[in-house]
Design brief:
The protein is mainly alpha-helical and 445 residues long. It has 16 helices and eleven strands. Helices cover 55% and strands 7% of the residues. The structure holds 2-acetamido-2-deoxy-beta-D-glucopyranose (NAG) (5 copies). One 2-acetamido-2-deoxy-beta-D-glucopyranose binds next to loops.
Length: 445
């Protein structure tokens, strides 16, 4: 059943009223866009240039003052080798002899391509392939290193392949993929636990350190499948995907009878430590990776996990427009604060909506089209509306019933409106865009 929890609650009359209201709102927004207000051409150009200016301000200063260290400290124009500090709130076990992994450069590769700067992209790729090594005595957070470094290398590789004809002299020979594979193989010892749940911390050179903490978070175990899965598909070495999937399945098996998970757990015993959880810190990307894994790999298993987890969140954490924390065992509210990391949730809902029940294939396609276009252009909007009208006529002629079509329109327009909240998580959307559009080709689906 792929019905969002609120879909069948709308009584027909109320449903029509809402649909009409949305139509009116959307038509108004589109008119504003056409006449130059709102997201009209002038404003879009202004914002485009502002984004370029901001990107190059950050990138150029990083390259000048911090590269090849990990990150720029902008006030002092110095650097920090932060890979071993990420997620390390008490700054424990910091390495003495680690000079950075050019982390910001790796993370900027995909942005350089999106912004059309292939020359700089190529320069970065060649530097990394000649100079980056992971044979360093540094204890790093598996989750952070996965999403930032491994993810950056893999998306860089996919883009380099995609644009290989624009790159000079065929100098790109999968070097980023080789780096990604080297890094991924250093992750594997973290998974060697009785439960298959990975340690949160690993030393890149020496593996799991003596007396390493066995406590980790739900995000730490449940946000690995995209990068490690892609690495397996790209290299043909199934170990990465298998390790991440085993951890995810184990984590999912630890859910309560309410389909809720906790926030922290022990990787040796597979027992929860913190039973209270929400959709913010420590858990957030677990939900995000479930739906993205479904989009990327197409396996129903990810959909089923996502759908059950999603419904449980809506049922137990949601209170009006707010999401609080609750005890996974009882569903009773524990903490009532709103936290910044929860901001990704509307974006996740938009990603999930195209897969909910009751949408016709054409509508799914339209929503995907609309979702994976960074800003809704007026042209897209009108195209969509025309297609909708065409399909209403077609459906009516074929006796499919008007309600079904209106429901589709309702969802499409709802998505457009919800999409504005995605601006909160542009990075996530962009990565999703590339994962979705580019990797589908690589995976041959
Ligand atoms: C890091 O830089 C220092 C100072 O330049 C150097 O002595 C050390 O060998 C470098 N460490 C590594 C692992 O390259
Ligand atoms: C690419 O980036 C480099 C470094 O910031 C800059 O010098 C160059 O002008 C950029 N090229 C384009 C086409 O934007
Ligand atoms: C690798 O680093 C060295 C030292 O910084 C530099 O001279 C060299 O040009 C780099 N390699 C590439 C391909 O950029
Ligand atoms: C690990 O813990 C044991 C027992 O507490 C202690 O004797 C040993 O020194 C610790 N090892 C390290 C490397 O901290
Ligand atoms: C029109 O509707 C029929 C019945 O649902 C469907 O089979 C057909 O593909 C539709 N035509 C187009 C062009 O979408």
């Amino acid at each position: 059943m792929r019905s969002p929890p609120w879909s069948h609650r709308l009584a027909p009359a109320r449903f029509f009223a809402v649909a009409l209201l949305l139509l009116a709102l959307a038509a108004g927004a589109a008119a504003a866009a056409i006449t130059g207000d709102g997201y009209g051409r002038g404003r879009r150009l202004y914002m485009r240039n502002k984004v370029l200016e901001m990107f190059y301000h950050a990138y150029d200063n990083y390259m000048t003052y911090a590269f090849p260290h990990d990150e720029l400290k902008p006030l002092t124009k110095s650097f920090t080798d932060s890979l071993s500090e990420l997620g390390n709130l008490n700054l424990e076990h910091l390495p003495n002899d680690y000079n950075g992994s050019a982390l910001t450069l790796v993370e900027s590769l995909s942005s350089l391509v999106v912004l059309g700067n292939l020359t700089e992209f190529e320069r970065g790729v060649l530097w990394l392939s000649e100079n980056l090594t992971f044979d360093v005595d540094a204890r790093i957070n598996l989750f952070e290193c996965n999403i930032r470094l491994l993810g950056g290398l893999i998306s860089g590789h996919i883009l380099a392949k995609e644009y290989s004809s624009h790159l000079k002299d065929r100098l790109y020979q999968d070097q980023l993929l080789h780096l990604a594979e080297n890094l991924g193989s250093r992750f594997l010892p973290a998974f060697e636990t009785p439960t298959g749940l990975p340690y949160a911390w690993i030393n890149l050179k020496h593996g799991v350190m003596e007396n390493e903490t066995t406590e980790t978070s739900t995000s730490g175990c449940g946000s690995l499948i995209l990068e490690m899965g892609a690495l397996s598909r790209l290299t043909g070495d199934s170990r990465y995907e298998a390790a991440a999937l085993r951890a995810l399945r184990k984590l999912w098996s630890m859910r309560s009878s309410l389909n809720l998970v906790g926030t922290t757990l022990d990787v040796l015993t597979g027992k929860w430590i913190e039973y209270s959880s929400g959709i913010g810190a420590g858990v957030d990307s677990f939900y995000e990776y479930l739906i993205k894994a479904y989009v990327l790999f197409g396996s129903e298993e990810y959909w089923d996990m996502f759908h059950s987890a999603y419904l449980a969140v809506q049922k137990y954490f949601r209170h009006g427009p707010w999401y609080h924390e609750a005890d996974m065992r009882t569903g009773e509210a524990t903490h009532w604060q709103l936290t910044s990391l929860q901001a990704f949730w509307p974006g996740l809902q938009v990603c999930g909506i195209p897969y909910m029940d009751g949408l016709s294939p054409y509508c799914r396609m339209l929503i995907m089209h609309c979702l994976f276009t960074p800003v809704i252009m007026p042209r897209h909007f009108w195209e969509m509306l025309l297609l909708q009208i065409y399909h209403i006529v077609n459906f009516t002629m074929y006796g499919k019933g008007l309600v079904c079509c209106l429901k589709d329109i309702f969802w499409t327009l709802g998505c457009c409106i919800l999409q504005k909240s995605i601006i909160l998580y542009v990075q996530s959307l962009l990565s999703l865009h590339f994962i979705f559009i580019k990797q589908l080709k690589i995976l041959g689906t």
